[in-house]
Amino acid sequence: MSVPEPISQLSAHMQPGRFGADGNTPVLLSERRRAIAQVMGRKGQDARLRAAIHGAFGLDLPHPGSSVTRDSAMAMWIAPETWLILRDGSPSDDLTRDLTAACGDAASIVDQTWGKSIIRVSGARACAVLAKGCRIDLHPRVFGPGKSAVTPIAHIHAVLMQVDATPAFDLIVPSTLARDFVEWLRLSAAEYGYEVVA
Amino acid sequence: MTQPYRLAQGGRIDRNQTLSFQFDGRTYQGHRGDTLASALLANGVRLVGRSFKYHRPRGIFTAGPEEPNALVELRTGARREPNSRATVVELFDGLETASQNRWPSLAFDLSAINGLFSRFLPAGFYYKTFMWPPAFWEKVYEPMIRRMAGLGHAAREPDPDAYEHTHAHCDVLVVGSGAAGLAAARAAGDTGARVMLLEQDFEIGGGLLLDPRHDGWRNETIAALAAMPEVRILPRTTAFGYYDHNVLGAIERVSDHLPVPPAHGVRQRYWVVRARQVVLATGAIERLIAFPGNDRPGVMLATAAETYVRRYGVVPGRNAVLFTNNDAAYATVYALRDAGSAVPAIIDVRATSLAADAARGAGFTVWTGAEVIGVTGTHALRGVQVRWRQDGRITSVPADLLCVSGGLNPSVNLASMTRAPLTWSADLATFVPGTPIQAERSAGAARGVYGIAKAARDGTTAGTAAAQASGHSRSAEFTLPDDDAAAISPIQAVWEVKAKGKSFVDLQNDTTADDMRLAHREGYSHVEHAKRYTTHGMATDQGKTGGLVGSAVLAQARGEPIETVGVPTFRPYVTPVAIGVLAGREVGQHYKSKRRTAMHDWHERAGAVFLETGLWLRPLYYTKTNETGWDPILREARAVRRSGGICDVSTLGKIDVQGRDAATFLDRLYINTFSTLPVGRARYGVMLREDGMVFDDGTTSRLGEHHFLMTTTTANAAAVLEHMEYHAQVTWPGLDVQFCSVSDQWAQIAVAGPNARKTLVTCVEGLDLGNEAFPFMAVADARIAGCPVRVFRVSYSGELAYEVATPAGYGERVWSALLEAGKAFDIIPYGLEAMGVMRVEKGHVAGPELTGQTTARDLGLERLMKKKGDFIGRVNATRPGLLAADRATLVGIQAVDASFERRLRGGAHIVTRRESKQSLGWVASVTRSVDLERWIGLALVRGGPERIGQRMFATSPLHNEVVEVEITSPHHVDPENRRVRT
Amino acid sequence: MDTTPRYSGLRIFREALRGHQGWERAWRDPAPKASYDVVIIGGGGHGLASAYYLARDHGIANVAVIEKSAIGLGNVGRNTTIVRSNYLYPENHHFYEKSLQLWEGLEQDLNFNVMMSQRGVLNLFHSDSQRDAAARRGNAMRLSGIDAELLDRHGVARYAPLVDMDNARFPVYGGLLQNRGGTARHDAVAWGFARGADRHGVDIIQHCEVTGIRREGGRVTGVETSRGFISARKIAIAVAGHSSHVAAMAGLRLPIESHKLQAFVSEGLKPMIDGVITFGAGHFYISQSDKGGLVFGGDIDRYNSYARRGSLPIVEDVMSEGIAMVPALSRVRVLRQWAGIMDMSMDGSPIIGKTPVGGLYLNGGWCYGGFKAIPGSGWCFAYTIAKDEPHPLNAALSLDRFRDGRMIDEKGAGPAPWAH
Amino acid sequence: MHLITCPWCGTRDQAEFTYRGDATLTRPDPASANAPEAFFEFSYQRTNPMGWHSEWWHHTGGCRQWVKVVRNTLTHEIAATGAAHDVLKVPAR
Ligand SMILES: Cc1cc2nc3c(=O)[nH]c(=O)nc-3n(C[C@H](O)[C@H](O)[C@H](O)COP(=O)(O)OP(=O)(O)OC[C@H]3O[C@@H](n4cnc5c(N)ncnc54)[C@H](O)[C@@H]3O)c2cc1C
Ligand SMILES: NC(=O)c1ccc[n+]([C@@H]2O[C@H](COP(=O)([O-])OP(=O)(O)OC[C@H]3O[C@@H](n4cnc5c(N)ncnc54)[C@H](O)[C@@H]3O)[C@@H](O)[C@H]2O)c1
Ligand SMILES: Cc1cc2nc3c(=O)[nH]c(=O)nc-3n(C[C@H](O)[C@H](O)[C@H](O)COP(=O)(O)O)c2cc1C
Ligand SMILES: [Zn+2]
Fold first, then answer.
1. Reported CATH class of domain C9-20+27-82+186-255+347-419
2. Is B117 on the interface with C (CB under 8 A)?
């Protein structure tokens, strides 16, 4: 029997539409779904782990504050010896299975696909919206595409990643707080007008 | 005629836009660009407020945020704001304002009688009286004092407006947009540095706004700044505090100049600015001179009078006298004469001065070596009395305006908040910022560099230096305003004119120079003692115009120089700040984030009543119509005990622990052993804090040789994770152990009751749930409705029970599948309350028992403690106080009365006799027992277990209730644990 | 010995007629003598009160209170002035109740109006378990003869009409009220005790910093100060936030950390909040001074600090908690913010008693709560110094209790001082 | 307001961190002869200096590491930060 499609806790609360003030450059909000696994290197296994991930995914595990993408997969540093691996278009089981197979006992692998929600915020005013709750500097001289940070936004533990120079950001937040987080985003974006897109 | 004091031309107001506003019920007109104060003056309103202590009539004293007198209640209803400075309120059409601290009316205020008795109300009088009879304090004196005190009335309703926070970062922050600030911003901006320029006023320009000749440079500079992409200019934004690590707080008044904020807009915004370098170009504030009557309506600071003429096109008086000790203030008389006012006399305390000579040359009457010793007129100024210093000759001049200048005080409050000491400048007779400690510098009038051109040059230097220190080098030159300053004579420090009458050093709080001297006589000579004894500088203006004058009077009394005496400590807020804006969005529903489980929407649809526990929203119970009080709770608990129910337990903390040393790590965290736990089994564990008290409990399952899944209590989930991180990273860094929270990843559902297995059997695939194949404390993976699940055979309710975990994306599916499977057995969803009923019946400890004050022994858990090996808390738990025989230990209690009539109360104390006051312990948790059909509970009682079987009393004097109870085992239901094992 | 005139309404009237020229110093400004029977380090509330009771009750007047700055500018001059005795554990509530009883007659006793005003202290609760914990505390108090009342929602709404009963996040379930609790005028307490002690012959020596404690054969002999050595038979430490620093001069390490607590005052307003109200779903508490300022605060900054400056994170927390409890605060303006350094003990309860060094006594570990303790602590400390043994009321508040595992931990936070 | 430099994440606001006091203490060996006294000292006694202090700050909102920070308790200056087992230089005064 095939596994049924899981349900996002957010989808019911992110119906597409245009909200807030009128304006010609609305902020865009959308939910993104990707399989997410947390990879925690075992003691003294750094080289093996890097080789394993490189071999299986073609990704060089990135340094603090950054992420790397290759095809549909991405690796993001979140703590010493700890990364998130994200992959498009595959069920979470497959990702953890592939990772476990690749890493063996070089790492501890934990599925976080449903523990996290990913929300994309983009548009010219994206930084202004985030600055209402994010304490780190997102200015292009400091941040930029490929940069990432683990930092609370509006008191919610978040992993923040700049996708492109639009700018667009992906925010990975705990799924149990995602609805609250989206409410905060809506309030913060209302001043500029925003659009929820599928 | 409307606006009789409005000039036909001049100023920066827009005469094409006429605005109506109200003051004390009367309607007046003003223009766009007016403040409330300038509009009131334009309409000839002179009496605006009443002082704090003596209720003396007061007018408009300044033209800025330093205003001590002209405080009004702004707007009405839920938007009412008391103590608003008329001098900074931007006029808008329909603005409603009222005077305050007066009754029955502003012109006739009964409390003004205080003024008549003022000689009996010297500084600190209340410390010396109101002591007899003692009972009168609470009943008579204090209520009277409280009614008299205070200024305006706050709104009593929730605020309809919204606020928000914004975090900003920059290379150079410039505070103040006068010549110095604009030049600093320009110099820094030119280098490409990221610059922020904050200006509290609604117009950029500071002192530049007073002279149209500067418009050219001002406009050009603003345009240049606006063209720089990395420069941000924020008008209506006050920097209120300078904090450690170069962080400043500022408030932007986004919509205060509008009747209500626009849709989706905020009223104010709080900026947290992290600046690499700061330039403080905050200008200077004129100070008063203490002389009798210096508080009367019609007495005004000289720069303020100049400002009303030049910026607002208003004459604050037609017959104006200037009283000064410095040259700068002479600008005022030229402005007034230009505006058509008569200036019968200029009174200069100095014997000679260049400005006096020039003024005489220009046709003014200047009385040098003279001083003001009093005024006439109570609600409006009528005349000024003057005395020549040399011969004591006295004369009087009729006047409706007295402009006063005691010199300028650089606005050093922000600089001083950086901890940098202030230094005394004898030349300028004022304090200027000393050597900086943080990454800041002052520029322009803020450090005593006066004159537009000089200030601009100083600002350029400061802006360049700041940019450089932040890693940016100067690139371009730009022009500066012309040097128009004439040579000036030095200021002569005059703080007080000694003459008969009240000379105020603090206008709002009615502190006089005599009060300062009295404080000194009584030993309150330290500047901080004098401040507190006299309340000098403690009003809403924080002594901005009179603070230094008070210090000077004190210094004279002490016979010491001012620099020894000093001024009271500057603290935030530079000007007072609405509490709402500092709270930002975190109000109402958003006071704290809401954490919801994967099944939350289902619970909502099913009519769950939610409980806020920490951030979580948890179903307390599910209501049916006609149910009240305990009905739904008992219904749910009974249903579970009779057949079965399911409960959302997703909020439990879940921590995935892996690594070769995972088992060793857990052995050191818990008082019991996990290394011996077989794969596929779970075990209950208890952990202590290092001080030996119980920290947390929960079950941990072994999923693989090097893989465990821990559960923690909902309340301690975050604390336990942090505790583990501390010990893994700090105490035992050599252990190979990795862990992370998976609390959000997994939805978890308890399935409990005699029919729990039957329910699961109906829907679980891939797992033999038979008692032998899957015994109590077994763990295994399976599927429900095709969804991956992990089944744990654990029980909190004391029933045959399981917990089913599934990735949160399947939570609602599995939940529904379980309900569907249990339909045949009438199983129901149950909430936290029913769970609580059953856990008390079963005697499981929870929050009320795990208070951080109880030991494992207190809770009857010491048998879990391993005999060998280290674990956290082991050593401290052996201290005599933690082993003392008289510690309260866990027992059960049952009401002797076998009904629900006499309720047990959590928090009652256990006593041996009905009327005894000797507490033997307390009742931690109570419930109505569905099993025993009476009130039962868990209690901690001294010598607990030995008392089992005894009759005692649970007394709650707070409720005036005493209930007879029997001490029992904590395990009220199924003490042999049969149900969970069958 | 006390010949100075008393304060009264009549005296003010008489002095007014003489232009207030006749007022004497509230306390003298003597030069330090070479030697005293007792030197008390710290001219805060506790040091001054201890000196007062030593002289008044134990006949020991050859006492100096040595203050590095001017008296009363430490915590006693920067606290939120709440006075109450609503503690859970008998070791605490009996002690604080003694203090409250002394407060109740303090004006007359000191002949100085410290404006002790018993308008009540209300602790809100927002859940059943919080209610039960409040009831346990209230019942413990009642059994010990101390007043306490459990208010339901109606009771809270009546007592504090501006409280948002249906707070959108944490609705109010009720409150524990101590009617005899209230506030007092902080500065006046320091000044009143200083004047009282001075009138009994105590030397109050300002601008004199203790820099060392001399010992010989396990006993103290005197203090080194910025104004020279002063010998003393007994030395009593009452320096609040600086306990560790001064105790280290005698070679002691203490179960104490210094943390900063901030406070705020609003602009003056007509009466709006009557008693003291504390929020149970945060750390916020508020009262309104007789002058009209709303005086409020919240949690400590949660890091070791000797800096009396405010900081923004606490500002944000305190303000949002304040509005959660009283929404009408939103448009009220906050006027000033400051901080004080508190000696946070490892169990959140104070330490008053002897130390391992002969003739050296310690009064500290007051955490947030030492203002209310001032008369009681002065009274007990004076007893302990005079008799060289603790009074039964402070016997349990000993320094040994941590080693023995007899902590008095009202919050159950354990040895994490920032969490008490 | 403190800005604390996490060795991994860079300079962050104090709001991202959780404090846990003295970082000079080491958990004693529970098997040692004087364990009770050593654990009492470890758990309760603090130097609590007025000036430079080595202390723990947990980067709770970031990488969840226990960061060692040398900070002045009087001025709030930060002289150094490092990982748990880094040896950091403490300024003389
Ligand atoms: C913001 C805040 C709010 C508070 N709110 C309350 C409240 O509502 N209710 C309550 O009961 N308590 C409250 N407290 C606590 C209370 O203020 C203190 O516990 C109490 O004042 C401390 O005792 P003290 O008055 O003796 O301290 P202090 O007034 O601090 O006295 C200690 C004195 O010792 C001096 N000193 C230090 N070192 C030396 C030295 N080496 N030589 C000479 N002198 C020295 C200091 O200068 C100081 O004057 C609060 C504290 C703060 C900071
Ligand atoms: N009466 C007058 O003619 C008059 C008045 C003021 C200045 N000036 C001239 O300007 C010269 C100095 O120029 P300057 O630039 O040094 O001072 P300035 O007074 O022109 O500018 C200071 C600016 O800082 C702003 N400011 C102060 N504190 C602030 C805060 N906390 N947050 C935000 N903004 C704040 C003020 O609103 C003001 O606009 C003076 O020497 C004088 O010649 C003249
Ligand atoms: C109960 C109380 C009420 C206060 N009321 C005022 C006030 O009305 N106005 C004021 O400026 N300061 C007030 N303060 C604050 C003091 O001015 C001062 O900031 C505080 O005592 C700390 O001292 P410091 O700021 O000099 O360090 C008050 C302080 C307390 C403790
Ligand atoms: Zn980090």
1. alpha beta
2. no
Residues of D in contact with A135 (CB under 8 A): 12-13, 15-16
CB within 8 Å of chain D, chain A residues 36-95? 64-65, 78-80, 82
For domain A17-33+114-196, which CATH number applies: 3.40.640.10, 1.20.120.450, 3.30.70.2750, 3.30.1360.120? Answer: 3.30.1360.120
Chain center to CA of B114: 35
CB contact under 8 A, A9 and B595: no
The C-alpha of C148 sits at a distance from chain D's nearest C-alpha, in angstroms, of 33
Fold type of domain C116-180+257-342: D-Amino Acid Oxidase; Chain A, domain 2 (3.30.9)
Could you tell me if B672 and B864 are in contact, meaning their C-beta atoms sit under 8 angstroms apart? yes
Counting CB pairs under 8 A, whether chains C and B reach 3 or more, is yes
User: Is the complex ipTM more than 0.95?
Assistant: yes
In a domain, D90, yes or no: no
* Stretch (H or E) spanning C132: helix C128-143
Does residue C186 have its Cβ closer than 6 Å to ligand 3?
A: yes
- The band of A1, judged by pLDDT with boundaries at 50, 70 and 90, is low
Ligand 1, CB cutoff 6 Å, lining residues:
C 41-47, 66-69, 73-76, 78-82, 209-210, 238-242, 246, 261-263, 297, 340, 342, 366, 368-372
pLDDT digits 0-9 by tens, A144-165: 999 999 999 999 999 999 999 9
Nearest to B96 by CA among B108, B84, B105, B109: B84
Sheet holding B342-348, edge to edge: B299-301, B401-405, B319-324, B342-348, B366-368
Using CA coordinates, name the residue in chain A closest to B615. Answer: A177
Q: Are D5 and D65 in contact (CB under 8 A)?
A: no
Ligand 2 pocket, B562 CB below 6 A?
A: no
Alpha-carbon distances, residue B764 vs A58, B789, B804, B817, C359 (angstroms): 39, 9, 10, 10, 75
Nearest ligand to the C-alpha atom of residue D82: 4
**Structural domain of residue B27, as residue ranges?**
14-116
Conformational region of residue B133, where left means phi above 0, alpha means psi within -120 to 50, and beta covers everything else: beta
CA–centroid distance, residue D9 to ligand 4 (Å)? 4
Q: Quickly count: other Cβ atoms within 10 Å of residue D75's Cβ.
A: 15
B153 close contact with C: CB closer than 8 A: yes
CA separation, residue B783 to residues A95, B708, B764, B776 (Å) = 19, 20, 6, 19
B401 close contact with A: CB closer than 8 A:
no
B445 Cβ closer than 6 Å to some ligand 2 atom: yes
Verify that B442 and B344 share a domain, yes or no: no
pTM here is 0.97
If pLDDT is split at 50, 70 and 90, which confidence band does B486 have? confident
Beta strands B14-23; A156-164: pairing state: unpaired
Q: D16 — contact with chain C (CB < 8 Å)?
A: no
Report the run of H or E that residue B370 belongs to, with start and end: strand B370-376
User: In Å, how far from its chain's centre is CA C146?
Assistant: 20
Q: Give yes or no for residue C20 having a pLDDT over 70.
A: yes
**What string of DSSP letters covers B563-623?**
HHH--PPP-S-SS-EEHHHHHTT-SGGGSS--B--TTHHHHHHTTEEEEEETTEEEEEEE-
For a mutational test of ligand 1's pocket, the pick from C337, C371, C372, i.e. the residue with the most ligand atoms closer than 8 A to its C-beta, is C371
Q: Among B405, B427, B445, where does a domain finish? A: B405
What mean pLDDT is predicted for residues B72-77? Answer: 97
Here the tokens at position B132 are 């007899």
Q: Which regions in chain D score pLDDT beneath 70?
A: none
Q: For residue B8, is it within any domain?
A: no
Phi-psi domain of C216 (left: phi exceeds 0; alpha: psi -120 through 50; beta: other): beta
Residues C209-249: tens digit of each pLDDT: 999 999 999 999 999 999 999 999 999 999 999 999 999 99
